[in-house]
Design brief:
Length: about 350
């Protein structure tokens, strides 16, 4: 069963869910040590795209044919708020996506301090920063550019400098950094390019706000509305854009900032006190195993994985063709609240409350 757009966004109260029934069938024991004889229902909270969730549920159907998966889909901020509010009576089992390497110990009280058996197979730069995030994939900052509108405006959008062109006033969209992990990822990259908390970084952010930057209520809006022609540029991440193109999108192009881009590792974790914690651990062990990483990465073709094993992501350009900058993950984790406070102050001064 595929995931419909109606389940993509949710409010914290009365969340939309989708149940994917994975029909039971026999099969050989998995070579990565996970069990294929599990039964029951897994409640998965996720900020991932429809493409990601469809592929994952298909793979879980093959690996764990006796289980059902109920998906609650929303932004990272919505989902973590929901998990915190349910802490006395957890309703979910695990979260996938939206758990950013720069979160530090922010959510230490609501996730079980457990790591998969495959932490040793994660690239050194992306090993768990806190002992409970299993870092399974990368989110790389990118611009979604509507090539038709770009041509109409006579622009060639290659980097941050181009976003300050007056022709783009009110035509650039980014999610809300106070609640969206992808928007925080974009702020983090600005810091990596222009300097952590530097005058140059804040001058750029203020100039971007002054050029009419529009704040969206969801991460998906930064690529979906650009594809639909409502905006020229979405400040977003490569997986969302690549997934859109994979599904047949014709209007958007994937642009990496010419000044440099960077990736944050995102992960999955078991919710503390989860009703089906053992099943969640089996699923996370599969996601983190070299077998699962390669299977998921290659079936998607839109996501860079954290495994040391080679993965062919057919909808993404090779890593060595992109200009990269290094972000200071430790600094970002320690200063996240202060950066968000300064963002709110700048937004209020320039755009208004």
């Amino acid at each position: 069963m595929k995931i419909g757009k109606a389940t993509k966004l949710m409010a914290v109260a009365g969340a939309a869910t989708l149940t994917a029934s994975l029909a039971a069938c026999g099969g050989p024991a998995p070579s990565d040590g996970t069990s294929n004889s599990q039964t029951g229902t897994l409640v998965l909270y996720s900020s991932m795209t429809d493409n990601d969730l469809n592929v994952l549920t298909d793979l879980l159907g093959e690996r764990f044919p006796g289980i059902k998966v109920e998906i609650v889909n929303g932004s990272a901020g919505e989902l973590t708020t929901r998990i915190q509010s349910e802490a006395g009576n957890p309703q979910g089992d695990m979260m996938w996506g939206g758990l950013d390497m720069s979160d530090g110990d922010k959510y230490t009280s609501v996730f079980e301090h457990w790591l998969s058996d495959y932490e040793k197979d994660v690239q050194p730069a992306y090993k768990s920063p806190n002992g409970f995030y299993n870092m399974d994939h990368l989110s790389t900052v990118a611009f979604c550019v509507n090539k038709n509108l770009e041509a109409q405006l006579g622009l060639s959008i290659k980097g941050y400098a181009d976003l300050l062109d007056p022709k783009l006033k009110g035509k650039i969209l980014m999610p809300d950094p106070t609640s969206s992990s992808s928007a925080w990822n974009n702020l983090s990259n600005i810091m990596a390019v222009f300097g952590n908390d530097s005058d140059q970084s804040w001058e750029y952010i203020r100039n971007l706000l002054g050029n009419g930057l529009v704040i969206a209520s969801s991460s998906s809006a930064a690529f979906n509305t650009v594809e639909e022609g409502e905006y020229v540029v979405g400040m977003t991440y490569e997986d969302g854009i690549a997934s859109l193109k994979k599904s047949g999108g014709q209007n958007c192009q994937l642009v990496y900032p010419a000044e440099g881009t960077s990736a944050s590792a995102f992960g999955t974790a078991v919710i503390k006190g989860a009703p089906h914690a053992d099943l969640a651990k089996q699923v996370i062990d599969y996601i983190m195993s070299p077998t699962g990483q390669v299977a998921l990465g290659e079936a998607l073709g839109t996501l860079r994985m954290t495994t040391t094993s080679p993965v062919n992501s057919q909808y993404l350009p090779p890593t060595d063709t992109i200009t990269w900058v290094t972000r200071d993950v430790k600094w970002l984790a320690e200063h996240r609240s202060a950066i968000i406070d300064k963002w709110i102050q700048a937004y209020t001064e320039i755009v208004g409350a």
